[in-house]
Amino acid sequence: MVYGQTEVTRDLMEARQACGAQTIYGVEQVELHDLKSDKPCVTFVKNGETCRLECDFVAGCDGFHGVSRQSIPRDILREYESIWPFGWLGLLADTPPVNHELIYAHHERGFVLCSQRSLTRSRYYLQVPLSDKVEQWSDERFWEELKRRLPDELSQKLVTGHSLEKSIAPLRSYVVEPMQYGRMFLVGDAAHIVPPTGAKGLNLAVSDVNYLWRILRQYYRHGREDLLSHYSQLALNRVWKGERFSWFMTHLLHDFQDKSAFDRKMQEADRQYYLGSRAGLTTIAENYVGLPYETVE
Q1: Which of the four pLDDT bands, split at 50, 70 and 90, describes residue 3?
Q2: How far lies 122's CA from each of 10, 61, 297, in Å?
């Protein structure tokens, strides 16, 4: 089952509203204070007025460009990053999907991904050089290139149409350690980014939330302050496995211009093994669906 990110967001917002919890939108100048104390707080400006929110803990769910990670002293934070030498050109169109299941395809011209948003809306991606601009890619050029990279039986079924949206997303792998500072906990993109090849971005964010929720539940129900310091390592154990799988899938399926002839043969042998081996397919399935969680106790 594919649970689309926009649907996840909508359901969470509706659930929050239904339980009467308050959400404040459109704030500016967000700052975190006293994170090492027992009473951290958040200040922000709303409609020109400075507001102060006192709390027990801060969940830094504000994305890669948010203030949460930037509030951790630089001499404490360790960053790990890898920039991939290509991007994904994505096109969204109100056309029926070319296939009812997700398609990952390797081609000598570059990787291709075919996915569906609904029975009448499709999302397609092409591997392109980082130097490419969206303006260079007309709808006609995109559809023609997609057909070249798909097997004949699929390209003949492809329904083309006017694009609703086109963009080029650079690929990066990024992790910070630790994922907590005092009573502030980093969650999701604030702490880690994965290339979309492994479909692990939102999954890892939900994994972080799961661990943090279970730890805070033990804290409030049973006074387990000792578990608070375990969050970073629990989350990172799963994050690094998700990063590894995304790294593996990206290496397996994309074309690398700087690869030697030997490396290309190794890449081809890997694809043949994983597609032809039950054990290999099981490994991909296990990681793609999601690895088990560690116990919090």
Answers
A1: confident
A2: 20, 29, 43
Contact indicator for 293, 210 with CB cutoff of 8 Å: yes
pLDDT at 297: 82
Using H for helix, E for strand and C for coil, what is the string for 237-276? HHHHHHHHHHHHHHHHHCCCCCCCHHHHHHHHHHHHHHHH
The tally of CA atoms less than 13 A away on the side-chain side of residue 293 is: 15
CA–CA gap between residue 91 and residue 125 (Å, rounded): 6
Token output for 22: 């308050």
Write out pLDDT tens, residues 263-282. 999 999 999 999 999 999 99
Sign for the pseudo-dihedral over CA of 188, 189, 192, 193: positive
Q: What pLDDT digit, counting tens, does each position of 48-64 carry?
A: 999 999 999 999 999 99
Instruction: Tell me the mean pLDDT in the region 79-83.
Output: 96
Please name the helix (run of DSSP H) or strand (run of DSSP E) that holds residue 154, with its range, or none.
helix 152-155
* Eight-class DSSP state of 119: S
Task: Report the residue count for the chain.
Answer: 297
Token pair listed for 189: 């993109």
For residue 294, the Cα-to-chain-centroid distance in whole angstroms is 21
Q: What is the 3-state secondary structure (H, E, C) of 75-115?
A: CCCEEEEEEEEEEEEEEEECCCCCCCCCEEECCCCCCEEEE
Mean pLDDT calculated for residue range 83-110: 95
At residue 1, the pLDDT reads 65
Task: Read off the tokens for 151.
Answer: 């097997």
Residue type, 227: L
The sign of the CA dihedral 172, 177, 182, 183 is positive
